Each structure stands twice: as C-alpha cells, then as structure tokens.
Amino acid sequence: xxxxxxxxxxxxxxxxxxxxxxxxxxxxxxxxxxxxxxxxxxxxxxxxxxxxxxxxxxxxxxxxxxxxxxxxxxxxxxxxxxxxxxxxxxxxxxxxxxxxxxxxxxxxxxxxxxxxxxxxxxxxxxxxxxxxxxxxxxxxxxxxxxxxxxxxxxxxxxxxxxxxxxxxxxxxxxxxxxxxxxxxxxxxxxxxxxxxxxxxxxxxxxxxxxxxxxxxxxxxxxxxxxxxxxxxxxxxxxxxxxxxxxxxxxxxxxxxxxxxxxxxxxxxxxxxxxxxxxxxx
Amino acid sequence: xxxxxxxxxxxxxxxxxxxxxxxxxxxxxxxxxxxxxxxxxxxxxxxxxxxxxxxxxxxxxxxxxxxxxxxxxxxxxxxxxxxxxxxxxxxxxxxxxxxxxxxxxxxxxxxxxxxxxxxxxxxxxxxxxxxxxxxxxxxxxxxxxxxxxxxxxxxxxxxxxxxxxxxxxxxxxxxxxxxxxxxxxxxxxxxxxxxxxxxxxxxxxxxxxxxxxxxxxxxxxxxxxxxxxxxxxxxxxxxxxxxxxxxxxxxxxxxxxxxxxxxxxxxxxxxxxxxxxxxxxxxxxxxxxxxxxxxxxxxxxxxxxxxxxxxxxxxxxxx
Lengths: 281, 319
Prior knowledge:
The structure holds two protein chains of two kinds.
Chain A: H1 2-36, H2 42-46, E1 49-50, E2 55-56, H3 59-90, H4 95-109, H5 112-126, H6 133-157, H7 161-169, H8 174-203, H9 231-241, H10 247-278
Antiparallel strand pairs in A: 1-2
Chain B: H1 5-9, H2 12-65, H3 68-71, E1 76-77, E2 82-83, H4 86-117, H5 120-135, H6 138-155, H7 164-188, H8 192-200, H9 205-216, H10 218-234, H11 237-242, H12 264-271, H13 280-307
Antiparallel strand pairs in B: 1-2
Helix pairs in contact in B: 2-13, 4-7, 4-10, 5-7, 6-7, 7-10, 8-9, 10-13, 12-13
C-alpha cells in the first residue's frame, strides 16, 4: 500500500534527521575531550599562565570562574526563590502578576551582551563598583534570575495541593505552610534549577567582558572590588587575541570549562531524576 | 499555638489577651514575609525597567545627536564618525535567517522523532543529552567553530572560512535545544484522544503525526521557532569568532552567506573594550544595545501573548 510506504519512508527520514542532530553532540563533546585531555596536568590546573600565556596553567581563570559563580549564587538565589514563592503561592490572577510574568520572560530573552552593557552602565559606572567581581557577579546574577525563578516556581507548583490543604486546616498560617510543607518538598527541584542556572552563568562570556574579566592577571583577587580572570574570557583571549598560542592549551582550556559546566548540568539532571523516582506522591 | 500550663491557670481575659498577642505576632511575621516575597516578585519588573533605563541613559545620544538618515546609512566607520547601523542589522538578520532555515526543520523533526517515534530508552537518553548541548558554553562552541568549522567552510570554496554561513551553522546548533524542547512539550500536550482517534480510523503513524498531532501543536511550534530566533539573534561570542566581523553589505543572493558579516552583538562585544567612555562611539554602542533589547523584547512579548493568559496552575495558589 502506498501510504504504508510513505509511513516507512517518513520514519526513516525522521530518524536520519534526528541522528543528524544528536550525533554531533557526542562528536563535539568527544572531540574537545580527545584534543584537550593531553594538556591537562597538575601544573596546568594549579599554575598561573607564563611567557605571555603560551606556557603554564590556567589556575587564576579557574578560581575566578569559581568566585564569579559563587557571587552569582549569592545574587540570584534569595531573590529568585522569593519571586518564585510569590508567583506560586501568593500572586493572584491579576494585572500585576501578568506584568511580572511578562518581565521574567523578557529577562530570559535579553541577549547576554545587553546584560553586559547594563552591568557596565549601572554597576561599573553609576554605582562606581569599577570592573570588579562585585559588578560581574551582580550582572551574572540578574541574568540567571529568570532561570532560577521559573524552575523554582515549577518545583513549588509540583507539590500537591493536598499538602497545603491539610496544613492550613490544622491551623498553620500561610507562611508556616510554605516553610514547613511546601518548600521542603520543592527543595530538590529548586536546587536543580539553581545549579542549571549557575552552570549557564559559569560559561558566559559576554556579560563579564566589560564588568569584571581581566585579560591577564596572574595574582588572585584580594577583594570583591578587584578584577579577575575567568575561564570563558580566557578561552576567548587565547584563541583569538594571542598569536602563536599552542593549540593544545586552547583545547585544554575549552575542556576544563566544558567539564565544569557540564558536570553542573549532569549533577542537576541526576538530582532531578533521583527526585522523580523517590517522590512520595 | 502553645498556651503553656501557666496560661492555663490564668484568668479567662488574660488568656484571651495572650492569644491575641500571639496571633498578632504571627500576623506580623506573616506580614513581613509576605511583603518581602511580593517585593522579590516585583523586582523582575524593576530589573527590566532598570536595564532599559541604563541602556537609554548611556545610549540616548545616539538617537538624539545623530540624524536618523545617518543611522540608517550603510557605512559603519566609527573612526570617521560614520554610524550607519544598516550593515550591523543586516549581519544580524542574515546570520539569524540562515540559522533559522537550518535549525527549524532539524529541530521540529528531532522533536517529532523524540515525541512520536523514538522508543522509550532513546527518549530517556537523548532528552538529557540535548539539555547537555544547551549547557555547552557558547564560547566553547565558538572556539570549535573557529578551529574546525571555518576551515571546512573555506574548503567549500568560500574566500574565507569566517562567513555568515559559518555563523548560521553554529547558531543553528545553539538554537536547537530551545526549539526541540518547546516543540516536544507542545506535542506532548496534544490530547491522547486525538491520536487514538486518528489511528483508530486507520491512519498510519506518519499520517497521524502530519495531519493531527502537528496541526494541534501549531501554536506551541510557532512559539518554539520564535524563541529559537530570539536566542539566535542575541548570541554573541560564537558569532563574533566565526563571522569575520566585516561591517559591509554584500550583494543580495545566496553568495551573501559566504561572505564575512558583522552582527550587532559582535560589534558591541568587539568595540566596547576600546572606546573612550562618554565618546560618541561609546554612546552608539549602547544605542545598538537598545535596538537589540527592543527586538528581543518584541519577540518575547509576542511569544508570551501567543501562549495566552491561561497559565497552568497545579498545586499552588493557596486555594
């Protein structure tokens, strides 16, 4: 029959196209791993760059990225979870709520380079923090906020209504119910969202270009008002701005950055899967 | 409420007084927390307002001091004071268009495969994998494009490997996770009865997908494409590394894809580091930022409107 043949051909084509999308993901990860793993060494991970960055390691960049990620967490988590609680538990179906949701969608859609401009205009210049870890963390934090809000809200909404009904009927107040019934059950989901958001922030380059990233700075920052090197920017610098850079160091840097970001993504995925299996409802 | 044994011995009015005080204290707590939480909710609006305000504050001179006719011009030569935004807009649109043409068919088909055809074990394996792709930093993909993809494109016969096409290819892969996951959600939301009905009438699986599931998921697919475009037009580092950054407008035609272009995002990223603060160049770069902000704002607001006001509510909302 013709239509059975069409069906078969469609199946084949669709499978082939899906393979065209999925196989390169393995290739990309495998390729960077294959080319970068040779550069990894104790020295590479623990030493500052030397000889115009063509030798030595990337330790200041790794540490800088860790500092920035911590700063991002401090900036984004309280505000993000607060907003998620508001949207899930308090907000009515009114104009304000719709405006907040619209704002969150748009925050998520603003290009990262525009966040960089904003960070430059507000934190670096207007608030006079200078190019500093503080300015960079706040910029990255605001960029991460929509991810944290929407995943945390999802997690809170996934807690069954009955939990709230029982708690309220026992005389608990709204906040007591949220604090003792809703949040503990939503916590794994919230953590997943936070880690995903932070992973993305750790890999971002554009927002830190003008707010914190240093081209070459072998000394570690002493305070949050100092500049720092960061892995994504360092990779950009050594692959396009420094002539005569050994390719192995470039691949090595790309690999370290990818491993940090992917391991965060994987941890988040594992928490989510484990949570789904263990869910009590 | 723990009225302790002391209070049990107290007189009735005392106990009432005590209970009232407790309730007042709890109410006070509730009041503080409720408002703190409400404020963090409203902060989203405040932040987007602040972003727009600071872009305007630094970028306004672009639109006040430079005649519009010059801004629409086709020459971007900051050193000579020529601020034609057309080549940058053109670069962004060309690269995004190319990425959309590549990513939409690939993304929709992959979503159909994962949602309708793939066996369960593949779905379990590939969905997190696609999330992993979304997690790879754009600078890493840009680096890969720079060292591997660009030479390949050059071998195709382009004069240089750093072209709009190279950028489109990279951007397509970066937009794919967005398109795939939203399309898949849309397919998933199509009621089971629709599929069963079609299959019961004797439709093949492909007929069911093509005639029933995809049309039913239409609005979700449109949103997926729009958000994918929004993602592509705002991408910075990867595009900057592989598109060659030449601010010119090549002749229209397919050949245009194989010439270097310069996008709005790349212009900001590449030039902001070198300009003097407060110079016209500095202001114009913020002006470009305003244009980008408005474009993505329009795309995302429209997508939100398409989703409709009927939000999904499950457990929350406190009754």
